[in-house]
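Usage

Read records sequentially. Each one opens with the input sequence:
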Amino acid sequence: MVDVSATAGSSRELSPEEEMQIIHSTSMAAEPLTKAGDTFCLISRRWWEKWISYVTHSKTGGTNEGSSSDHHDHSKTPKRPSSIDNSDLIYEAASINSTMGIELHDTLVEHTDYILVPEETWNQLCSWYGGGPKLDRKVISGGQSQTELSVEVYPLRLRLHLMPKGDQCAIRISKKETIGTLHKKACEIFHLNSEQVSIWDYYSHRKHALMNDLDKTLDDANIQMDQDILVEAIDDGGGCTNDVQENGFAKNEPTALPEPSRTNYSNPPTKGLPKGTNSELSQLQTLSSAIRESEDKTQTPPPVTVGVSTRGSSGGLTGLLNFGNTCFMNSAIQCLVHTPEFARYFREDYNQEINWHNPLGMVGELALAFGELLRKLWAPGRTPFAPRQFKAKLARFAPQFSGYNQHDSQELLAFLLDGLHEDLNRVKHKPYIKSRDADGRPDEVVADEYWANHIARNDSIIVDVCQGQYKSTLVCPVCEKISVTFDPFMYLSLPLQSTTTRTMTVTIFSCDGSAVPSTCTVTVPKQGRCRDLIQSLTTASGLKHNEKVFLVEIRNHLIHRFLEDPLMSLSSIKDDDHLSAYKIPKSMKNTKFLQLIHRREELETGNARGTTGWKPYGTPLVFPVSCDATITRGDIQLIVHTMLSPMLRTDPNSDASDSDPDSTPESRKLPLKLVDGNNACIDLSIGEERTVRFPSSSMSILLFIDWSPKLLKKYETHYLEKLPEVFKYGPTKKTRTEPLSLYTCLEAFLREEPLVPEDMWFCPQCKERRQASKKLDLWRLPEVLVIHLKRFSYSRSMKHKLETFVNFPIHDFDLTKYVANKNNSSRQVYELYALTNHYGGMGSGHYTAYIKLIDENRWYNFDDSHISGINEDDVKSNAAYVLFYRRVKTDESCTASLRVIQSQFTQDSCTTSGLENINAQILFDTSSLSCSNVWSSEGFILRYSQAGPSLWSFVLSAPNTNSYIAMGFSPNGGMVGSSAVVGWVTSDNSAAMKRYYLGGKTPSQVMADQGNIIADLPSRQLIYAVGNSNNQAPTISSFRLTAHRDQKTVTFNYESGEGSEVNAPYSDLKRIHGILNAVGWGILLPIGAMVARYLKHVGRLWFYGHSSIQLSGFILGLSGVISGLILNDRLDINVGKHKAIGLIIITLGCLQIIAVLIRPSKDSKMRKYWKWYHQNVGRILILFAIFNVFYGIYLAHAGTEWNVTYGVFLGIIVTVALSLELRLLTED
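and closes with the structure output:
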């Protein structure tokens, strides 16, 4: 670090009170005279607080009465601070040089890391204490009227690039310095003649503007932090000799950039002392004139540049002035304005989409006001704007946001999205649609139906961008009726974890005497049910497989209620309640519960004579008994002994010793009294053989045990006496915990929970309101996902804000596993691009926005009118409130231009210009497209070209066959797993197009809006398909595709435009499968049967011929079935019926072989039955085989050639069989 020698102090050391008075006077004198150009100095907050403590101690602490300051007890006075130490504000390796000076840390915050004092105050402190280094910064003016003063803590950090030498140098310079000053500094640094140097705005290493207006400030020239400046040296001949390409990158130039700063400026203090020095009133007064001028100022023309255009990044960096607690509005507006889809939409002409007559809207006024505001914020320049007109419109339609009180930014955001949707709703007349329950239908069908109904009533840019769909499942706790609905959502409000769980402490007792009572603390959902608590206790206590937990609430040493209902809400159990759980057997049925209530002698309250009585104490014990069993008094004695046995003292010297000579069976009996049905107490210490009859009216049997002092000595009864509360407030030991993840918050949101009592569900089956359980699942995600973190909680008595840090992902926010729609196989990945922050407490906080300019790939802090660059690492904080995520698309540039165009041109070819009539409707340049006749029989013409990196242009033309046409990109030549673009003409004669992913061959596996079409190079395996005109075209409700009429797969060469047809995968194996089955089952088996019937007259030869032919047919057919099973496994095709018939044929064939092997002799009585069985089973087998051969040809789309060929063979066989049958009949 830099060493600065201490300045000599005064001859007399001043007292703390004198130091404070001098600093206060110096600061107060400097404040009214502060103007642009004055100097303020930074002092480490750490050192400043030591000094403040030193100078204020004697004043605040006081002295004893009658004593003087000279005799003050200095042992209690804080030590005088050592020399000023600013080392924590600067880099350790910082050193003074001519261009950068001393470098501050990039993330310093005023009043947290440093305080600002006038230079006079610094000089005074330095004269007393010395130290340093001195960190002086200039006051600059800003705002529309240049009357707003601030200290430029972080001057611009610029990197100068000298060309043609390639030298580089980083400098610090105020943004209020002129271009001429920058020009002069560059010449001094590189030792150049000023007449031979020109400097350029070199933003993103591209020449944007020649900076030749030497009087313009760097701020007016839109020079930003960490920007590159090109210093161009001109040779003696007047030419420019450099290696910089026009509007391009420098050759062989390193592009490393320093880390950006967190902020550029700080408001100057209005008082000399550090705390509470900034006055919002004075800031508002300073800004008032700037606000008025900003509203009345007309749009200024863009700055003139020489030779090149200004960079596009100048837009989008306009702040919004705060004119009285409007930061909540400013932060929400900036996030919406910087949503790319909205920025494009509202800068175009959207008037035709305004719904002027929507009774739920704002007559279009909100949409018009927002569009006008967005255009101003994206206009060139960085002059802050005051959204007074928008605020007035907002107050008119939403009076809750009128005035200048602080409001919730998320509530405003919800109102804006809903209001803009209604103003821009394309549906002018909303139809009435009654939603149907699922009633067992597939979720995909029901979800598409709900979404179609929603779109039929709500269709706007807001729906296109921000609305998704979730699945809501309600289960009735009584009749278990399940109701499934699919509802739209605009944003997700996620609870923070600390608000969703609670810890509960329960004491667990063992009924079989296997363990002493123990306490167990578990974590359960705050809005969970009793079953959640029981499940947690079951897991935590290590129950045996044949045990379960019986839960009760204890009050006044008695069982207050049995917590048997598994659906009972845990909210009914208070933190100061007492719970007990008893391990009981699972298998017992028709049981009653024996309640062992403990009593001991206590003085009667209010009794002057001091008499005693038996009062309940401790925790009751529970034991289940069967109502069907015969229970004697002795059995109950044994049960109680068992329950109390874990607490029995084992000290041999105790009174419980069995060696006690006074110990008799009578003395070991416990003083038990049972309450019968008449509420009379039965003494169980006598007549142990007598049977006990339990009262039938109650499930509980009361049993009292009276603890005498002697009996108390035998047992460790403290286990029964100290029953803890469910949750006890008090100091807890802090433990290190992992940051709360956004995924954890989402899982808490999606967790099944019971409805709150005031929001019960009307069960259509019970016809009553029930406290059903509700489970949410994400089904359809929007392009822009807005997530609200529920930091604020409200109750009648208090308001509370959670400062919990949520670790939210900036990149790769993967929601794939949370989407319940499993037909959507593509990854659902999002990236953060904006968020609002809330600092401070309830009602007195401050809102800001962090926004990423996507074109620049850089984050900015939008703090009302102040905008500064920030590091991406600084985006995460515990102030994050509303998060804006945008879907990551790999083929975004392609899908943005999907379009179908109907043309009156009747014929198209590569030799005729078929695009002339429709060029105006195509969204990209068609002049350089290559053309190829890709499918002559269907008239498919493909035109294509590469328009840029990962950007290809395709035009596919085909005759209108009253069905769809499709072009697919396959990774392996197969249709399954490919992505396709499908176009068709709708019933109202308009054109439509969709992107699909082919996850399988059934319509439900072909998913709309899924799949990746374009990468760096499109797939060479192209699939063309044409639909069947007899089937319905895709509809807006589901966009389901029907089976294609024909298809063709080609390997396409994009360089030559030639394609070679590709055989379908495993086509050879398919052919072999068909031949083997047709020959084996469909030809040889019928021939073998004919030999057996018509050639018996040739002796034993007919038998051997018949057997050989049949066995050959069986072997070939079996091979065909095996090849079919292999195809089914590899191609994942749905041929269930075909496969089932094949397995039936094999089974019948095996039965025929077995029948031949066990055939009876000719003279057996069973021979005629065997013959009948063998002949008819063979005929059935042949019929199944012939049918399955034709069915297989149909499934494989093998065409007429296969049908004709097999039909000819079969016809010959049938003809021969008929002729032989006729001959046989004539002979008979």
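Summary fields computed downstream for this record:
- DSSP finds 23 helices and 50 strands in the chain.
- The mean pLDDT is 77.
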